[in-house]
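Training component of the fellowship. As part of building independent skills, the fellow (R.M.) carried out the full modelling exercise for a liganded target. The chosen ligand was calcium ion. The inputs are recorded below so that the supervisory panel can assess the work.
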Amino acid sequence: MKVLIIEDEKNLAEILKKGLEEHSFIVELSFDGEEGLYMAESFDYDAVILDIMLPKLDGLSVLDKLRAKKMDVPVLMLTARGEIGDRVKGLNTGADDYIVKPFEFPELLARLKAVIRRNKGESSPLIEADGLTIDINSRTVRRDGSEIKLSSREYAILEYLALNRGRIISRTELTEHIYDMDFDLDSNIIDVYINYLRNKIDKGRDRKLIHTVRGAGYILKGD
Ligand code: CA
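Fellow's submitted model of the complex:
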C-alpha cells in the first residue's frame, strides 16, 4: 500500500513515515499543500494523510480540489484538538476519517487501514477467498486454517491482490504500490515474489487463487 503524507511538521511526518514503513507501507512525503495536491493528483496512492494547517494551500482546500476532480482516494485528516469546526468541515468536504493531534501511532494505523479497506469495499478486516484468510490488522495469513508465514514483501503483494481481488493488476501497478519511486520498474522481481507466494498459497491445492493473465498481469480469484 502506498500512502502520501501531506504534513508541514517535518518531525511528525518523518516519524509517521518510519512507523508506516515498519508495517510494509510505501510512504511519500510532502511538506506543503500545493505540492501535496500535485502529488495526490499525479500518482496513484492507496490513501492520503492530510494535515489541515499547511503552507501554500490549506488541507481543506487540498481535499476540496481533489474531490472536485472526482478523485476518490481515501483521506485521513489530521486535526488540532478543539477545532471541531475543522473536523466537521473536513468530513463534509469528503474526508473519510480524521484523527486529533496529538495521537498515538497505533490509532493512526488502525484508522488508516480502515479507510483503505472501506475504500476497496471491505467492511471487515478479515479478507476471505476460497479458504484463504488474510487478517489485515494482525497481518496473518491462513489457508484452510493453517497459518502461512510470509515475508514482508510477499505479504504486501498478497494483501494488495486480495484487496483488489477479481481485478487484473498489472506488474507496473503492483510495483508502484509495493515499492517506492526509486525502484526500477523493469525488474522481474514481482514475478519472483509471485512464484514464492504461489508456492506458499496455492501449491498442491485444487483451487488456485493467484492467476497470471498473459500480457496483462495478475489476478486473485476466489469466492
Ligand atoms: Ca500543520
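The panel noted the following from the submitted structure. The mean pLDDT is 92. The first strand starts at residue 2 and ends at 6.
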